[in-house]
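Could you join me in thinking about how sequence relates to backbone shape in a protein? We need material for that, and I hope you will provide a protein of your own picking. Label the sequence line and the structure token line clearly, so we can match residues to local backbone shapes. Would you write everything just below, so we can both look at the same thing?
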Amino acid sequence: MTTTPLTGPHDLVEAAGHPTGGGNMKPQYDDRLANEDLAPLKKQKWTSYNIFAFWMSDVHSVGGYVTAGSLFALGLQSWQVLVALIAGIVIVQVFANLVAKPSQKTGVPYPVINRVVFGIRGANIPAIIRGLIAIAWYGVQTFLAAESLNIVFLKFIPGSAALLDVSFAGLSALGWISYAILWTAQFLLFWNGMEVIRRFIDWAGPAVYLVMIVLAVYLVSQAGIQNISFTLSTTQLDFWASIPVMLGAVALVVSYFSGPMLNFGDFARYGKSFSAVKRGNFWGLPINFLFFSLLTVITASATVPVFGELITDPIKTVEAIDAPFAILLGGLTFVTATVGINIVANFISPAFDFSNVAPKKISWRAGGMIAAVGSTFLMPWNWYANDDAIHYSLGVLGALIGPLFGILIAGYYISARQRVKVDAMFTMDAKGPYWYRNGFNPNGVKAVIAAGIPTVAIAVFPKLFADLGLFDVSAISDYSWFIGCGLGYVLFLLFERLDPRIPTFAGEAEGISDGTVDGAAATAASEPPAMSGGIPVDATASVPTVISGSGATA
């Protein structure tokens, strides 16, 4: 058997975290659809801890701290907040498992698995939408991390305060320096590939926890444990008035995680098994988020007796301590935390998404750099300060996350019945099963439009009406993700029932991933002689097969 990986004209770029030639490329893959970053992985090595660490990086940020703390200031009793937290994060866990399975089983990232549902070319629709959202938030998170770094500079280099008086394009000279440092650090981390990123997030999540625990213990010792309250609001709602607030809190939790949840397949594809991914999701979501939220409310509550005011921003909390070591440790830790969430939520997603648009010209690294450079041109420090700009720009794009999620779940689990012909996702042959109509599945396109228009309206117009002084129905906007997801799911299935497009390959076994065998195991089983690596070939539950060198035989 040949052990040297196939290399040739299709091996255009170094695969993310793998040596050149280590991706599971095949000579028949069209270079307009495939490079070694998008092709099915030959090795899937991430453990439950790696997935757990991914979610730690996603949760442990300034934004996560503020979001968790805000839930305890809604006028709810502490037990009601905990119920809302658990309900919301369990919903996130369930949906993360759903979106993880197709990518883990086939070994391909989020934009590629969408070729099954949207068509070979149509998959660029969800990819570009998700990529644009990530670009915007990448700049914002880098800016927030730079603000944290500014505090360190001002404390240890007093002369740097003079740089605050000089500004360009709306940002001070010190801000530009901090932004450039963080931008470069993230660039270097990303450029070294997925394995280096994995090692970083494996370390970053626990590091933030350690500092959070130390911060909480210090503040509680200063405040006195008897002064700690799990309710940060000065007013309490009665039971019936609290119900819609609790539901809104559940929706807030789901919405907060909706971005990384949508493209979680980009990470789940590296999981050594689907069971490992699910275990990582369990520890990383309900367990991790609940513990982080409790640390957050304890820390925030302690700021009232210690500093005389409620401080919900962890950077300002550290700054208020006014101890050099605390500022250095806390500032750098929360910089690390923000870098962690930026890499996992806003760098890797557009890297795969933009590479999917033109694999021959855009590698995984090039896709990530498009996002990084594009985010700077948006000048996030100006944009982030404008609530209307955030609402009316990201409101439109963010409202489409729900429909895209519903369509993917309906397409993979119901229409395709979890059966995917992996090689067919990498061919431009007009007779291929995923070519549909000129590379687009009309049902997917129609479902995005039909579900997207009302969802965008629900997300955007209530604020517009309120701003115009007409009437206030803004509460419905909190549920735009759920409404969009439900509409996308139902409408896609309706269109597929009226005009079936997605094949299920009934009776076929060779070259089919049917959702029962993990990607790496199927790849090893289906590797024939004289080839560098096969694609996942799963035995169907109804047709037992024996995998031989020439394929599957009943």
